Amino acid sequence: MSLVFLSEADVRANLTMRQVLDALEHTFRRLADGEVDYRPRQRVRVAGAMLHVLPAASEDSGLLAFKCYLSTRQSVTFHVVVYDRRVGAPIAIIEADQLGRLRTGAATGLATKYLARRDARTVGVIGTGRQAYCQVEAICCVREVEQVLVYSRQQEHRERFASLVSERLVPCVAVGTAEEAVRNRDIVVTVTNSRDPVLLGEWLAPGTHVNAVGSNALSRAEIDTVCIQRAAIVACDSREQCAQEAGDFVPLMESGEWKWSDAVELAELIAGWHPGRLHDDQITVFKSVGIALEDLAAATRLLRNMGLWPPPLSTAEPEES
Predict the structure, then answer these.
(1) What is the residue-averaged pLDDT of the chain?
(2) Is the pLDDT of residue 145 over 60?
(3) CA distances from 50 to 43, 46, 53, 281 (A)
(4) Angle in degrees, 0-180, between the axes of helices 132-142 and 17-32, rounded to the nearest 10
(5) In angstroms, rounded to a whole number, what is the distance separating the alpha carbons of residues 156 and 162?
(6) For burial by CB atoms within 10 Å, which of 76, 152, 259, 291 has the most?
(7) Domains and CATH numbers, the chain
């Protein structure tokens, strides 16, 4: 099988949020069964640039992949490289900006599916960057959302985002403060690159589910310690990776009030190892840092959709005579 290159346009044309939700849910179940392996993000840097690498492998599919992206002051470029053990070689290089938005949104969607109240109808969003739209899209796939309120520091940005969401998904209103966006909402999303908390726990109504998505460095925090202290359940995509990257939790860890063994992993919720929410007044938090198996799951579904995997038997294994 020859190596194929898939562009951002290929991803947009051949992969949907509902498909990625299904793919991630399957993969997290396989993680609970021990059939998926991954490693936390690794970073190397030179002056003005940083390379980030996340590897994963699936016994279930026989595919292995790594996501890599280069961040500079001017831009970020994303790629996923997929290998097939039967072929013994790479089978695809995928431009992965849109793929990353979909898989990050899908992780939030799954956390919302398993932790938010069944009757959750309103969503508050802080942040309107490139990840924000897919966050709302995924939540709309798992709950019957009636309204979204959004805040970002730039009025133009939040109004543009509200218009897009209203046109494509559900009614969305741009508001003037973060508190107005999230107070009394059923589901809250923070998706910013802020170094200081943009969400205060005192704003949360009983029963709120929070998805904290934007921070994946110990130097950044989107939610304050009160959010964590008020949470009956803190879930995450990976305890190991969150311990290395979730800056929101550092103050409580340093004071001894929090340890990552207190958290439940998304795979454990999906596999039924943890009961999740026990009553409607509980506040729940999902901390997302983005892990490699999510990229592998989304890439695998993309290749299936395009008829590129599994490869024909003649290119992978000889037929028995």
Answers:
(1) 95
(2) yes
(3) 7, 6, 10, 42
(4) 80
(5) 10
(6) 291
(7) 4-99+293-316 (3.30.1780.10), 107-291 (3.40.50.720)
The first and second tokens of residue 128, run together, are: 């309107």
Look up the pTM and report it: 0.95
- Which residue is associated with the tokens 């969607």? 109
CB atoms within 10 A of CB 206: 10
Residues 6+ apart with CB under 8 A from 14: 302, 305, 306
Residues 6+ apart with CB under 8 A from 122: 145, 146, 147, 148, 149, 184, 185, 186, 187
CA distance 162 to 149: 8
Task: With H, G, I as helix, E, B as strand and everything else as coil, classify residue 60.
Answer: coil
Q: Among 230, 257, 232, 253, which Cα is nearest to 243's?
A: 253
- Asked whether the predicted pLDDT for residue 114 surpasses 70, the reply is yes
Contact at 8 Å (CB) between 236 and 242? yes
Classify the C-alpha dihedral 289-293-296-301 as positive or negative.
Answer: negative
Helix/strand/coil for 166: helix
Residues 6+ apart with CB under 8 A from 66: 53, 54, 55, 56, 80, 81, 292
Residues 51/291/264/212 CA torsion (nearest 10 deg): 70
Q: Which amino acid is at 222?
A: E
Q: In this structure, what token pair is assigned to residue 219?
A: 């130097």
Coil, strand or helix at 192: coil
Token pair for residue 36? 């998926």
